[in-house]
Amino acid sequence: MRSALAPLLFCLSSAAWAQIPDTEPTAEHPAAPAEQAASVPQCVQTLPPLRAPLAFTPGELLEFDLDALGATAGKMSMQVQKKQNGSLPVQVKVQTNSFFSKVRRVDATAMSYLHPKTLRSFRYTEDATENEVHRTVDAAFNPSKRSVRVDWMQRGKPGRNDVSYQHEGLDVAGAIYMMRQLPMKEGLPVCFDVYGVRRMWRMAGTVLKREHVSLPLGEFEAWHLSGTAVRLDRPSMKREVHVWITDDERRLPLAALGAIDLGTVRATLTSYSRPGEKSQQAEGKESLKW
């Protein structure tokens, strides 16, 4: 298993857990005829200009419950850091609980380094332990060449991949923050390439409509985005996902649904805190209403 953190983040970036099978052979194999016949969706237009000002600032902390197999699987947090060397870092932490650790045990931290104005990715790093296997990843983006150099270490053995992309190149964590700045409207197409699990994926989706969402955290009006992610070098790998983002100045990522090899998974926002504002936490309701 190459990484469980990326599927967790994909769930919120609309590329979803569903888009990244977290079990994959260690060696590369030629694509089967059916895979060769599959196609990657084309981006018919570039991403629209992002809204200003940013919906988030350094210090914002988002916390999520992660559910799988019909039960709570763990926690995830995302925190915007102070600007560093011309970039805006975002730290992401994921940890499974004692129940889910019997199925898959994950303790991971990722850092996404974003351009403070365009929110495009400079660099993405991971440090994760999954079922006692420790691995690190350092992905450096080169926009001029539309490529990503990926240096990784697993079980003490180093490796390197160079992967290319055709359109906007984002990382799994950075894509979440970029989507929060989209000028949402019904029917808006969204298409970009995203890095995850040492590969690039095409995320193609649409803003479906505005919906009322009831969570333990509160009542919200939110935009519902639906999409499909396809691995650029193996188009047969694709699945559908859904994500909800609030229709207000905060643009909070409320929830996402997808699937991994274990089945359907969900990430649900349970608390958020922002500089100068009172922290908001879930009230303990058991059910979600859409």
CA-atom Rg in angstroms: 18 Å
Q: What's the shape?
A: globular
N-to-C CA distance: 34 Å
Number of helices, counting only DSSP H or I runs of 4 residues or more: 4
Taken in chain order, the helices and strands follow as: HHHEEEEEEEEEHEEEEEEE
The largest β sheet comes out as: 16 strands, mixed
As residue ranges, the low-confidence spans are: 1-29
Q: Which structural class do the helices and strands define?
A: mainly beta
Oligomer designation: single chain
- Percent of residues in beta strands? over 45%
Average pLDDT, rounded to a whole number, is 82
Number of strands: 16
Q: Indicate the percent of residues in helices.
A: under 10%
Structure, described:
The protein has 290 residues and is mainly beta. It is 9% helix and 51% strand. The protein is built from 4 helices and 16 strands. It has a 16-stranded mixed β-sheet that branches. β14 (253-260) and β15 form a beta hairpin. α1 (5-13) packs parallel to α4 (172-180). Residues 1-29 have low confidence and may be disordered.
